[in-house]
Amino acid sequence: MADTKAARPYGDVTYADPKNGKYPVDTEEHARAAWSYINMPKNAAMYPLNGVTLSEVKDRIRAACKKFGIDVSDGDSEGNSDKGGSSRTESLAPYFRSFPLEDIHVRSSGDGRTVEAYAAVFGVPAEVKDQDGRYMEEIDPAAFSKAISDAAPQGSRRGWKVGVFYNHGMTIHGTPSERGAMPVGVPLEITADSRGLKTVTRYHRGEFCDEILDRIREGSLPGYSFTGNFLRSRPMVPRYGFRPDVRTGELPHVRRTESTLVEYGPTPFPIYAGAGITAMRADSVLGAMAADPDLAMRMLAMLRDSTPPEPLPPPGTPSGEEPPPRSRPVHSGRSVKQEMNAARSAFLQRQHRR
Q: How far is 10 from 16, CA to CA, in rounded Å?
């Protein structure tokens, strides 16, 4: 018999597989994680293990999920329960969602540093292509109810447990930005109304935040976005992701019913959407641009004209290729990435000459 203590890494708690000390289900977080991991093919393939079957483990996890109010029924029939599962309850990586909004505005009262905007819009289907596949997504009006409750000031905590960052703290290239990693403001109010997730944010003082506020006033930063994990969806995400119908080409409709809220803030990326709502991951920007020349040209124009600049490199830092003349047209002979680097160099040189 296996050493009980060695086989129980989480201590004396309830396990879906108590014999092997696997998949603790004593808390809601553990139950969610257990269901996610047991539906991964490599984990499911380990069973039967020491006399324990996959169906036994999944049944115990289902029971725990039901106890915590976690919906794991959609898309998971008993007929495939011993084949590694066909779906998962939650996202395995954070999602970025960006929404172009016409009514983002700076409050006229006070000193002009308070911004009202919607970080998400409810009930509006939008085509999405991301780590969950290709599908039509709609955010349920109740999706952020728990996130708002969990993040709101309470007890001795006076502030919201939600960050406010410009473009998710990323550069236009989808890489971490030292400047963007600093919060640009603090939430004053976060509420869900009939339209979407409404935020009221007080922006900090400083050059970078001043640039953002100026661009919001001028209309060149018309959108907000948020980062979070979708904990519940209808239907659940299939193991291999959502795909168009092979006969009709119709995209599956996915309703996001519960999401966390990690951070939100202004973004230049709503220009990416042709139909109104953007759904993209920051690390997919170059790929999307490479596949869409029109998008590439719009993004390059945005880089030249409206994106708050990153700090100039220290004196003496090699600058790479010589920046092109200001009037130099974009040629198709260079890759999108090369064009972006050239445009960014020209932009920084212009900022330096000012």
A: 12
